[in-house]
Amino acid sequence: MLEAKGDIMSAEELLADRDHVLVALDGPVVEHLPELPVADRLRLMVAEDRLPRKVARTDDPFVVLAFAASIGPATEQAVYAQWRRIEHEVVAAARLTPGVGEAFAKLAAGGARITVVGSLDVRVMRALLVMHGLDAHVGRVAGRNDSDRAALPPAPDLITTAIHAAAIPVESCVFVGTTKHDLAAARAAGVDTIHHERGTTAPAPPPVVVSPAWFAGLAKVRSAPTP
Q1: What pLDDT, on a 0 to 100 scale, did the predictor assign at position 208?
Q2: Do residues 55 and 47 lie in contact, with contact meaning Cβ atoms separated by under 8 Å?
Q3: How is the chain split into domains, by residue range?
Q4: What residues contact residue 83 under an 8 Å CB cut-off, 6+ apart?
Q5: What integer pLDDT is reported at residue 226 of this predicted model?
Q6: Other Cβ atoms within 10 Å of 50 Cβ, number
Q7: Which one is predicted more confidently, 47 or 5?
């Protein structure tokens, strides 16, 4: 799937060759997502009575949200809204990966559709893109819409849904990611992947037109598994 004219494509050639570029939020778009005590802050909303030990000790916001749902739908909605507010704080403090804006502009100018994929609430992800002007180049956002953890990476659901929504064959797609969960999700969806190294300082190659710094972080290209 990755070969062209008898040669293995480079990462940049592969990106230029594909119609749909799916990009993970964590790594390729933002360098680091600040870690906040999400579960602790959500727990404050349901801590009027004695909590079950699992809920009292967890660092997993999904566990707190599930307990809120057991109290009632209004409590669940309030806790999820607070979770979304916390994620807005996270993205407001996040640093963009160097050169991502220029890279997205170059990919879009070449005719590629861009989808950003992440485990944050989809509205939070859209707000991040708008905040930094990346929404001008990103056609779709695939993120968390509810409390369903099962759809998030390493599950392929978000990527599969994004591909179907774009109505572009999987063979014409490529995924750029940093974390093992994101890359595993893309391969499970049958998509070729490019590993983007976090915090790279490697220089861009020296063509006539210098590529944005973002492309210097592109590393290993891996073909999707054969069905």
Answers
A1: 38
A2: no
A3: 3-32+95-222, 38-93
A4: 38, 42, 61, 65, 121
A5: 63
A6: 8
A7: 47
Q: What CATH architecture does domain 3-32+95-222 belong to?
A: 3-Layer(aba) Sandwich (3.40)
Which of the residue ranges 45-54, 72-81, 202-211 has the most confident prediction, judged by mean pLDDT? 72-81
Give the 3-state secondary structure of the chain. CCEECCEECCHHHHHHHCCEEEEECECCCEEECCCCCHHHHHHHHHCCCCCCHHHHHCCCHHHHHHHHHHHCHHHHHHHHHHHHHHHHHHHHHCEECCCHHHHHHHHHHCCCEEEEEEEEEHHHHHHHHHHCCHHHCCCEEEEECCCCHHHCCCCCHHHHHHHHHHCCCHHHEEEEECCHHHHHHHHHCCCEEEEECCCCCCCCCCCCCCCCHHHHHEEEEECCCCC
Q: 163 and 190 in contact (C-beta within 8 Å)? A: no
pLDDT digits (tens, 9 = 90+) for 147-177: 788 999 999 999 999 999 999 999 999 999 9
For the purposes of burial, counting CB atoms within 10 Å of the CB of 95, is it exposed (0-12), middle (13-18) or buried (19 or more)? exposed
Q: Quick check: 148 and 166 in contact, CB under 8 A? A: no
